[in-house]
Structures are given as structure tokens and as C-alpha cells.
Amino acid sequence: MMVNNLQDTTTLHNGVKMPWFGIGVFKVEEGPELVNAVKTAITHGYRSVDTAAIYKNEEGVGKGIQEGLKEAGISREELFVTSKVWNTDLGYESTIAAYETSLKKLGLDYLDLYLIHWPVAGKYKDAWRALETLYKEGRVKAIGVSNFQIHHLEDLLKDAEIKPMVNQVEYHPRLTQKELQAFCQDQGIQLEAWSPLMQGQLLDHEVLQEIANKHTKTVAQVILRWDLQNEVVTIPKSTKEHRIIENANVFDFELTKEEMEIIDGLNENHRVGPDPDNFDF
Ligand SMILES: NC(=O)c1ccc[n+]([C@@H]2O[C@H](COP(=O)([O-])OP(=O)(O)OC[C@H]3O[C@@H](n4cnc5c(N)ncnc54)[C@H](OP(=O)(O)O)[C@@H]3O)[C@@H](O)[C@H]2O)c1
């Protein structure tokens, strides 16, 4: 598999095409910076946007989408939009209601992907039934989960009628998730990286810098290229135009097998975000 273009897609197990690359908007508050970031990403060729109800920014994301589509001269169908149901809304009726609320805030009539944000024990199966209903009714193009470990997936699959198409998890050179990725590959579930840049904490890493120098690229670009060559969908966040451009400029070089192994070797099973087996929200 070789991803050659910012708009290249992976085909999910239901046939839906999802861009390998997108923009994330975690911690970006409502306001012009948010609207501009989304719009800027779309005008620079991004075709995927990742938000969540808990980010409390779906209205601005929706506005950025409208402006971006207009400026880029593309239709809604050419964009892939993801949102997520928050923990307090997990339940059959409440998840369906949460989906309606997200759509309304985003100003959209469907999402491309709707995810269960966290695997809250005792709650995610009812929420999954709701996602299955939305999917079967044709109201959402694909459904998936986030922060699911292997045992969460195994448990969900016992009762699921439809397999999740995506599992979005923390993933970067300090947390390479090899076992989870192998499990997901076996099941046909596409892995997607959140905090691919480890929230900026890896950008002065010596080994990564050396590899970056060899390719005359930045460390951020090396990490994002490593995601793609590992067949992981990636959604780096930036609100700065020059970084939005920089992050997406990863289609004109290739990491060697040795470089891929060196980066894989930086794994320490280290998380910057909450542990899916031990969270209290
Ligand atoms: N499912 C989940 O539970 C979950 C959890 C966390 C995140 N996510 C999703 O994943 C997306 C990405 O993760 P993230 O936002 O946590 O972290 P990230 O993408 O790893 O890192 C974002 C940080 O890196 C900086 N940055 C971005 N590009 C850069 C570059 N080229 N050079 C230097 N600094 C750069 C950004 O600052 P500037 O904006 O100032 O450029 C920001 O501070 C989120 O936005 C969200 O959509 C999902």
C-alpha cells in the first residue's frame, strides 16, 4: 500500500472510503481561530475533519466546513466528517438523540463516521445498538469506536450485528499499539491515530530529527509519514496555516524499512492521554 496524495483513501469494511489524512480540532474553542483552521485545511486539500461532542466546538467546525466547501468549490460528499458520542450520552435513546444534536450543531444532514468516544463499562453495548440503528437507517455512512482495547472489542463483537469499521486510539512513536493493530487488521477494523504528534512532545526528539534531516523534512512530517506507511489513518491538529500545510506535505518522500523499524523501536507504551482501562469520566 502506498499513499500518494492528501486525498487518498482507505476502504472501510463496508466499502466506504475514508481519507488517510485529516485535521483534528481537540481543545480548539469556538471562535474565528477554529472556523479558520477547518476552512484553511479544506482549502489546502484536506478532505477529513475530526471532532466530538465533548470538544464543544461542533458549531464552529460546521461553519468552517461550509466556508471551506464553498472556497474549495467542492460538495459535501467530497468531505469526510467524524464526530463522537460522549460518555454521558451512552445508551440507546440517548445516543440517537446525541447524534441528532451533533448533526444540528454541525449543520449537516449526515456524518461519515460516528464513534463511541470511550469504552464506558456497562454502557457501550447499548450505544453500539444505537449506532447500528443509525447505520441501518442510512443516517450515517460508517460507525466505529474509540479508545477500545482488544478486550473491549472482543466483548463488543460478542453481541454486535455490525463490526465497527474504525477504532480511533492514541498512537505515536511512544505508543505503537502493535497488538491492537494486528487484532484490528484481523477483524477488518481500520486503526486511526489520535495525538499522532504526541501533542507536540516528540518534536525535538534526536533520532526523529536525524531521520527528518536525511529527508529534508520536519519531525512532524516524519511521524505523520510513519503513520501512513504503517497503514494508520492520522488526524494531526493545528490551527496555524503554515503547520496545516506542513503536516499534509508528506506525500513526496518515503521512509525506508530501516527508518520505519527505528521509529517503531521508540515505543515505550507511554500515553499522553487517559488509559482506556483506567479512566473515571
Ligand atoms: N478519540 C479520542 O479520545 C481523542 C483524544 C485526543 C485527540 N483526538 C483527536 O485527534 C486529534 C489530534 O490529537 P491532538 O490534538 O491531541 O494532538 P496532536 O495532533 O498530536 O498535536 C497537536 C499539537 O501539536 C502542535 N502541532 C501540530 N502540528 C505541528 C507542527 N507541524 N509543528 C509543531 N507543532 C505542531 C499543535 O499546535 P498548533 O495548533 O499551535 O499548531 C498542537 O499543540 C485531535 O485534535 C482530536 O481530533 C481524539
TrEMBL record:
CDD domains: AKR_AKR5G1-3 (cd19157). This is Diketogulonate reductase-like aldo/keto reductase. It holds the Pfam family Aldo_ket_red. It comes from Cytobacillus eiseniae. Gene3D superfamilies: NADP-dependent oxidoreductase domain. Residues 32-268 form the NADP-dependent oxidoreductase domain. SUPFAM superfamilies: NAD(P)-linked oxidoreductase. InterPro entries: AKR, AKR5G, Aldo/ket_reductase_CS, NAD(P)_OxRdtase_dom_sf, NADP_OxRdtase_dom. PROSITE patterns: ALDOKETO_REDUCTASE_1, ALDOKETO_REDUCTASE_2, ALDOKETO_REDUCTASE_3.
